[in-house]
Amino acid sequence: MTRKSFRWVAGKGICVLAVATSLSWSAARAVAEEARALPEPEIAGEMPKAKSETAVLAGGCFWGVQGVFEHVAGVTGAVSGYAGGDEKTAHYTMVGRGDTGHAEAVRITFDPAKISYGKILQIFFSVVHDPTELDRQGPDTGRQYRSAIFPQGPEQARIARAYLTQLDGAAVFAAPIATTIEPSKSFFAAEAYHQDFLEKNPDHPYIVYNDLPKIAALKRQFPGLYREKPALVSSAGK
Question: Strand (E) positions, the chain?
């Protein structure tokens, strides 16, 4: 395959995909399909009394993170946005500078009677992203693409710290885990054109190369939790 670069522009924000000359599409996708079978969290938390709970996670470009969790059974919604910085800088063009403190993040709403927070984290580390990459994911570089967990309370923070310790002890990754735990950070929804981007643009080169393999990995590694029909922002009227 000849060398190609694909570029998508929204305002001044840019997502880039470069495919090297030596890689065919099938070989490139095989690389992107790498996922890991990770142990179940030893601490998943007690069953909350609430019928709905939220998790906020950052693992690179929010298109793929949102896209994966929209296909997880028990998840009732996933919204792309920004976390880690101030409300005044929670805009795509500003976050793209990499100096706002924000990470591209996803707010996941789920039914704790159907899926635990611990299981959400297991999926996050297994198929959503590579937690050993520091301030980057795949072709995207910068602090805004860091791996981060934004606990929505002390119990989530406890579960997240315990799972990171468990994964470190199990030595399941070849490099140190770079994921940060950042409590007490607000989440701000991203612009409308970012919502449900994977579902609306399944043929977009960035999605094909980077994100559709994650959906395939979810279906392969968590067949009991894979849902064919996604929980879309648009269908929820948000």
Answer: 4-10, 13-19, 53-59, 75-83, 103-110, 136-137, 140-141, 147-150, 180-181, 187-189
Which of 44, 61, 108, 217 is flagged as catalytic? 61
What residue ranges define each of the domains in the chain, with the CATH number in brackets?
Answer: 49-236 (3.30.1060.10)
Q: pTM to 2 decimals?
A: 0.88
Which pLDDT belongs to residue 102?
Answer: 98
- Note the pLDDT of residue 48: 64
Q: Provide φ and ψ at 160, rounded to 5°.
A: -65, -45
Encoded tokens for 27: 């070989």
Count the neighbouring beta carbons within 10 Å of the beta carbon of residue 226.
17
Residue 61 is a catalytic residue: yes
Q: Identity (one letter) of the amino acid at 16?
A: V
Question: What is the predicted pLDDT for the residue at 235?
Answer: 80
Is the distance from CB of 119 to CB of 81 less than 8 angstroms?
no
Which residues are within 8 A (CB) of 159 and not within 5 positions of it... i.e. 6 or more apart? Answer: 41, 43, 44, 45, 117, 118, 121
